[in-house]
Amino acid sequence: MKMTVDFEECLKDSPRFRAALEEVEGDVAELELKLDKLVKLCIAMIDTGKAFCVANKQFMNGIRDLAQYSSNDTVVETSLTKFSDSLQEMINFHTILFDQTQRSIKAQLQNFVKEDLRKFKDAKKQFEKVSEEKENALVKNAQVQRNKQHEVEEATNILTATRKCFRHIALDYVLQINVLQSKRRSEILKSMLSFMYAHLAFFHQGYDLFSELGPYMKDLGAQLDRLVVDAAKEKREMEQKHSTIQQKDFSSDDSKLEYNVDAANGIVMEGYLFKRASNAFKTWNRRWFSIQNNQLVYQKKFKDNPTVVVEDLRLCTVKHCEDIERRFCFEVVSPTKSCMLQADSEKLRQAWIKAVQTSIATAYREKGDESEKLDKKSSPSTGSLDSGNESKDKLLKGESALQRVQCIPGNASCCDCGLADPRWASINLGITLCIECSGIHRSLGVHFSKVRSLTLDTWEPELLKLMCELGNDVINRVYEANLGKMGIKKPQPGQRQEKEAYIRAKYVERKFVDKYSISSSPPEQEKKIVSKSCEEKRLSISKLGPMVAVNSDEARRESLFCPDELDSLFSYFDTSSKLRSIKSNDSGIQQSSDDGRESLPSTVSANSLYDPEGERQDSSVLLDSKHLNPGLQLYRASYEKNLPKMAEALAHGADVNWANSEENKATPLIQAVLGGSLVTCEFLLQNGANVNQRDVQGRGPLHHATVLGHTGQVCLFLKRGANQHATDEEGKDPLSIAVEAANADIVTLLRLARMNEEMRESEGLYGQPGDETYQDIFRDFSQMASNNPEKLNRFQQDSQKF
Q: Mapping DSSP to helix (H, G, I), strand (E, B) and coil, where does residue 270 land?
């Protein structure tokens, strides 16, 4: 065994020993520097390798995204997926390589430097210290005078002890030097050998991986050669087609004038037209229009749902417009709206006008035959206006509302006379009516009944859900509770006078309501039990998706025509006498479906037909009992989202704006907000609830909906005229609360409503529905709130915070 420093020389402490120590110490210091540098370079290499793996993984993820994007191309998707999997394996191999490098180089060499070299340094310090003490003892021993025996003995003893300690520490130091010189060789070689084996394993794994992938890559290369040949062939064919089309004459617009009323896809004609908006600025926008399925519709983008301009071409006319500055304009006029359009040329204008006129005539020919079949199955009120072969777009509007509402128990027949297949509804009562009963309900006034057509009107999603929550069976259990006890029979279809008396007694005087009891909980039979046939019918409708709302210009408003003008329109299209009779009997065509515009009835006269002896009293005192509190029942039912119980409370005379003095004067509408039900709020609003009535804290329904983050309710209240400028006792309006809560959806709705309000005030357009963009955004929020509430970002907030 070769020793770096001899133990014998250590005991002599000779100059050769000291020189050997000096050489060894210098060598160890340089070794430490080299090892430290190597460890740092290893760490940098590992960090760079990990960064490479991260970048490589991102690149691999990009390949996978490209493979998913190419899902319609099997060859590309399969190859990219296989390549990305192989790259993922290589990333795993790289990760293993860097882990082994860290263990072999970084960990082992760092341990050698920190452990073995540290022991060497500690031994060196002890040796230098004891060596200095020995020199001091030798000097002191030499300086002692011989006549001072005591000092001589003391110096001799110190020298002896110091020499003994020096020999011990010097031997340990030499041992540490020899061990270090022997160990460093094995540690360095061991770590480097482990590092090289890690590389060997890495390259073997990569070789094996790509050896398996090789045959596939070879097949893919042959397939790629064929694809290149096919692509060159397709390019030549497309160039030839391009050259052929380029030789055609496109100097005129004749190629754009083609229309086909018998087109297989149902599109009679389509193309771009300029449309004048209904906003205050009367801006013109270019849209893609089409005539299809007896409707005039347009789209801004291909993926957008078509916006219906005219739902039924039979109820419209088209004419030239020469009294405006823009050229090539024409106007499509319906009973509820007027739409100004502009073509690109005179030929295109004539083509569109002729296409609309031809489509109108075709619609009447088709509907004339279908009306005879429908008369056998439906009431005269619907006649030719409804068809079993309507398009999907029609199903998403009138037909969807009709089928979904009629599916509710009891709704398949008129609520008051029992006539089958009713096509009208009272939206505040939640019942279906025949055409004759609907006319009687209109005469009661909107504070008793608000009538709307299930086929001619467009239904807002929250209103349709409201109709599906109630139904004829539920309402009749309330308004006809004592009908059997009183021995009165419901009128039959066709008995006009008996119907009028019965309906007034039922809804105005409420004579058949059980006056002396209000159930603490809804009867078991009030739970909606949908039959299997109705359930299948509802499922078939649900496949068509949510109903499509109309444009803001198509918002319900007063008719543009009086009955005589409608007669002239029908005669203009040379309609049959049967259609004219349907129109004259069905006053719903000219009737506005805007609840706020329905005329109030004249004074209701008393009728003695349903006034038994001893029961003549005003409806306002029907519940005048200390044991009954209809207002409190309505208040609690609103929070519980129990619409049948709410309808029962209203039938017993509950004030829809009743304020609970024991709970901050909160109203049923505020309780409905707290309960979180959009349909409950809609029911109260349809029955006259004040959307701006506030509690003692100065907060109205809009305040509470904003605090709770109920986006759908905020949208509903803004549409119903809620005052967003009102402040609570802390001086906060709904917008400031929404901003503090960082609720982006509600802030958007409130700011948009405020901007729309300011624009209408500046333009003097009071009572107008508002800008088209404003209507579109609110329509989208209403659809989501009713059909997909999970898509709204409901930001829940503790109400006590405010």
A: strand
Higher pLDDT, 580 or 708: 708
State how far the Cα of 372 lies from the Cα of 376, in Å rounded to an integer: 7
Q: How far is CA 670 from CA 53, 442, 604, 650, 660, in A?
A: 58, 29, 32, 17, 11
Q: For residues 88 and 108, what is the distance between their CA atoms, to the nearest angstrom?
A: 29
- How far is Cα 769 from Cα 51, in angstroms, rounded to an integer? 59
First to last CA, the chain: 87
The pLDDT assigned to 200 comes to 93
CB 264 within 8 A of CB 293: no
Whole-number Å distance between alpha carbons of 752 and 732: 18
Give the separation between CA 502 and CA 492, rounded to whole angstroms. 11
Give the helix/strand (H/E) hosting 668.
helix 668-675
Q: Which of 130, 132, 159 is nearest to 143 (CA)?
A: 159
Are 560 and 336 a contacting pair, CB within 8 Å?
A: yes
How far apart, in Å, are the Cα atoms of 209 and each of 24, 63, 202, 428?
50, 19, 11, 72
pTM of this prediction? 0.41
Q: Mean per-residue pLDDT for 520-525?
A: 40
Tell me the three state secondary structure of residue 389: coil
How far, in Å, CA of 441 to CA of 443, rounded?
5
Give me the half-sphere count of Cα atoms (radius 13 Å) on the Cβ side of residue 536.
2
What local confidence, expressed as pLDDT, does residue 4 receive? 64
Q: What residues contact 250, with CB distance under 8 A and at least 6 apart?
A: none
pLDDT recorded at residue 25: 82
Q: In what order do the strands lie in the sheet with 317-321?
A: 307-310, 295-299, 284-292, 267-276, 338-342, 329-333, 317-321
The Cα 488–Cα 509 span in angstroms is 15
Q: Supply φ then ψ for residue 343, to 5 degrees.
A: -90, 175
Q: Give residue 326's region: left, alpha or beta (phi > 0; psi -120 to 50).
A: beta
Rg (CA), the chain: 46
Distance CA 710, CA 749 (A): 12
Q: Tens of pLDDT along 467-494?
A: 888 888 999 888 888 887 888 888 888 7
The predicted-structure confidence for 333-362, as pLDDT tens digits, reads as follows: 876 778 899 999 999 999 999 888 888 777
Dihedral of alpha carbons 673, 679, 684, 690, sign: positive
Q: Which domains does the chain have, with CATH numbers?
A: 7-128+179-243 (1.20.1270.60), 266-369 (2.30.29.30), 383-548 (1.10.220.150), 629-801 (1.25.40.20)
Distance of CA 575 to the CA centre of its chain: 46
Judged by DSSP in three states, 454 sits in: coil
Confidence at 293, pLDDT banded by 50, 70, 90: confident
80 and 107 Cβ atoms separated by less than 8 Å: no
- Spatial strand order of the sheet with 431-433 comes to 431-433, 424-426, 451-453
Q: SS3 of 122, please? A: helix
| Cβ density class 36-48: b for 16+ within 10 Å, e for less | eebbeebeeebee
Rounded CA separation 187/108 (Å): 7
| Rounded Cα distance, 622 and 614, in Å | 13
